[in-house]
Structure formats: C-alpha cells, structure tokens
Fold each of these.
Amino acid sequence: MTVVDPGFAEELYQFGVDTALDCFNCGTCAAICPLIYEHFPRKMVRYIQIGAKDRILENPQELWRCLHCGLCTKTCPREADPGEVILGLKRYVVANWRRS
Ligand code: SF4
Ligand code: SF4
C-alpha cells in the first residue's frame, strides 16, 4: 500500500525540486524522453504531486536511467523542469539512503 505524504513536494525544496507542482501532466516529457520507459519522467513528477514518496524510495534505481539530455525540460510547456526534478530526486534518494 502506498502511503501518501502531502508534505513531500515541500520537503523536496531543499533538494532543488521546486517546480513539480507546476506540471499539468500533459505527457510531453514522457513522449520526448529517449528512454521510452513507463511514462518516465512524467510519472516521477506525478509521484511528487500526490505525495507518493514510497514509490520513489522503493525503486530508486529508476532515477539513474536518466541520461540528463535535457529534452524533457526543453519541451515542457509549463517550465516544470522535469530534468532538474529527476536530478533533485537523486539528491533526495542519496540523502535518505545515508540516513537509513
Ligand atoms: S512536459 Fe512538463 S507539464 Fe507536461 S507532463 Fe512533463 S513535466 Fe508535466
Ligand atoms: S533528461 Fe532524463 S528524463 Fe529528461 S528526456 Fe532526458 S533522459 Fe528523459
């Protein structure tokens, strides 16, 4: 069962993720991403929006698939900066991994 944390988006500010709530889930980033992988990176942004931090911490290696090519960020119509969101989530995962 996924535990929802409504404060997750705010918690991520300290890791440089402050644009996820601007996303309106159009899916452009998932369409342009060369990974062609399970709606990545859109689904990561969505996890933040709904506070599903467990989904990210249960499978953190997904984040390391990102090539940091920047295509998602360039094409996002909301300037939600999904590429930077992925980078910030990596910082979050590393910080939480150290604490556990
Ligand atoms: S392109 Fe931008 S607004 Fe559209 S789903 Fe991706 S992050 Fe959200
Ligand atoms: S930066 Fe990462 S998530 Fe964005 S399009 Fe490139 S590989 Fe996909």
Amino acid sequence: MTFKTVAYEAQCIPALEEQKKEDQYICCLDPLQSDERLKAVPALNKGKDTIALVLMLVDMLPSIKEAADMDFYEACAAMRDIGIMLGSLKRHGVEPVHVIPELEEKLNILADITDLPPRDTLIHYVRWNPEGKRQRTYTGTEDEIQLIKSVKVAILPLHEAIRALNELYNIPLSSPEFVPVCERVITHFDGMVQGMVNAKRNVSPRYFAEELRFYFDPIELNEQEYLGPGAVEMPVFVFDHILWNCDLGEAFYNEFKQAYLPYNQAVMRELYDAYKHLPSLVNKCIQELRQANDYSVVRLDSAKHLIKLFNLLKSFRAPHKKMADEAYEHAAKDAYREKGSGGYEPGVLHLILKLNLEALERLKSSIQDYKNKQAYQY
Ligand code: HEM
C-alpha cells in the first residue's frame, strides 16, 4: 500500500527549545520604553479614562522611521505593548484609528516586519508577554493573570503536538513507529488539558463573559476588522485540520479556520496549507484499515492509540464548552454580549465538538469492521 505523504518538512517548524528562547528574548524587550507606564493601564481601564489612554498611546507610538528601523524582535515587542492600548480603548467603545489616524501606517509597518496582522495577536499577549512585575494586562486582576497563564501552559506544547502530528501523518498504522509518535502527540497535547484545568480553577467564567472578553474585541484598520488576542486564536484548528478535518468541506468550520489562520505565524499557515488537498490523518487510517488484507496486531494497536488521542481532544473540548456555556448564561440578555471574544457565539463550540465526535465514531466503527473482518477470516 502506498501513502501520500505531506510535502511539509517537520523540521521547518521550530523546536520547542528554540521557540522558548525566542519568546524569552522578545519578553525582555521594551522598545517603546513602556515598562513603567503600562502599569497604570489597569487603573485607567477601571476609571474608563479614555483620554489618558489615548494620550499614553500617542506618547508611546514610534515615529514612522523608528518603526521601520525595528528588527523582527523589537517589532513584536512594540506591537505587544501597543496592543494592550488598542484593546483598552476598544473596550470603552473608542475605535483607536478614529482618534489616532497615524496608527494605521505605523501598525502596517510593524505587521510587515513581523509577518503578522497589523494588531496584536494571542502570541503577543501570551507568548511574548513577560511574567511578574513587567507583565502587560488590561485589568491587573488575578482572573486575567490566570487566563494568560492557562494559555501559556498550553500554547507551546500545542505547537509541539502539531509538529509531532505532522510527523505521525507520514507513518502507516502498520509501522511500529506509529504508537511512540502518537504517544508524543498525546503527551504534548496534554498541555491543552492542563490549561483548561487551570482556567476552570482560577478564572471566573462570569468575569470572563462580562469583562475580560471585551478587551479582545475587533478593531477597524485598513477598512476591515482585525480580531483581538482571544484564546480562540490558538491553532487547535490546525490540529483538527490535520487529524480529522482538512478533507471534510464543512462550510462553517472552514470559515472559522480561515478567520483565525492569519493570526498565526507563517510556519503554521504554511503547514495548514500543505494539508488543503490531502485526506485527514483519520481518513488515511480508515482507508488503511479497509484496504488491509492481513491481520496485524501492530495496526490495530496503532488505531487504538489514535482513539486515545481523540479522547484527549475531547478532554479539552468538553469541559471548555461547559465553562463557556456557564459564562454566557450570565451574559445572554443583550444580543451584542452573546458573541464570543472571537466574534462567534458559544454555539460554535457545540458544532466543533459534534464534528470532532463524528470523526471519532467513524474511526471506532472502522476499527470494529477491521476486527470483524479478521474474526471472519480466521
Ligand atoms: C473562562 C474562560 C473561557 C471562556 C468563557 C471561553 C469561551 C470561549 C468561547 C465562547 C469560544 C467560541 C469562540 C469565540 O470566542 O468567539 C471559545 C473558543 C476557544 N477557546 Fe475558549 N474560553 C475560555 C478559556 C479558554 C482557555 C483557557 C483556552 C486554552 C487553554 C481556550 C481555548 C479556546 C479555543 C482553542 C477555542 C476555539 C474553539 C475550539 O477549538 O474548540 N479558551 N472559548
């Protein structure tokens, strides 16, 4: 049996240690000399002092030349700090570019240098946000600090899980290599489950729904909207894409994935594109089970490990959905407030989970067919 393999070289995705080092370096940078002044942001937000926020942002902004002269790392750190101000202003109903028109050109320059959108993303808010006294927050509350922490424990392990999943794609079920690589994916993806556990313990769903998520509202720029740095931007959808979704053609999830793809780094966007015309990993495995003429304990064991991986995905999604439902229960009266931080309603979580479980059922049933076929033959 021949397998179509992915054109994407796993080594193109930077390894965990490399990414950590780069992140720490960006965390240390303060190109707009904002360490001190950003400490005042939570109090200004509490007092809804939009005038002080606008003045602070104007004061922070680099000149066109200063922005253009920044290297990649400085531009990432500068965007992180400007981003805190953008989200703060928008939370109080002020469209940043309406009050500071020169923002557009400067943000576009930083976007070009970083190869990311012309505003901050989850990567700026979490991975490039220093911990401790220099941490940038909108509210300074323990809930927000814990929300950032919940994503931080999950985001780089998720990248590692995606890297390992990309490797797994090229291994047939019949190979003894499948199980150890699948175990690696499982170990890394567990970071997502740990992130949820931390959020469940330490982030009030009500405070999230009624306060925090409004700092992640979209802003206008270049005559379009750019989404704020909500956890929804995490590339879990890239994980889904490879594992069970790239060949489904489900309109709503395709639209969702396309909406969040630009908020991820080039390497993730390229990886996503590499799978556009390929069968998903689960469908490739189902095909292998169907076509196999011989009974193989190794193949069966590999397929069972894939179920274990699906179950872990469920261990993130089911409690996350429950938490989101709880949160929005408190905030459903006003239509505008029903939207999630990414602009979707919590109902989208139900739809994604449903599709996710359907793919799992298809795998389970093909494993059963494989077992039945063997029982019949021998
Ligand atoms: C109180 C805490 C949280 C609430 C109320 C919440 C709520 C939501 C809602 C309503 C959505 C739907 C999309 C949208 O925002 O427009 C969403 C999506 C998402 N959230 Fe959260 N969230 C919370 C914390 C977290 C944490 C800590 C993580 C990661 C560790 C996370 C990861 C995601 C992901 C990956 C999605 C995309 C949908 C999916 O893959 O299932 N969320 N969240």
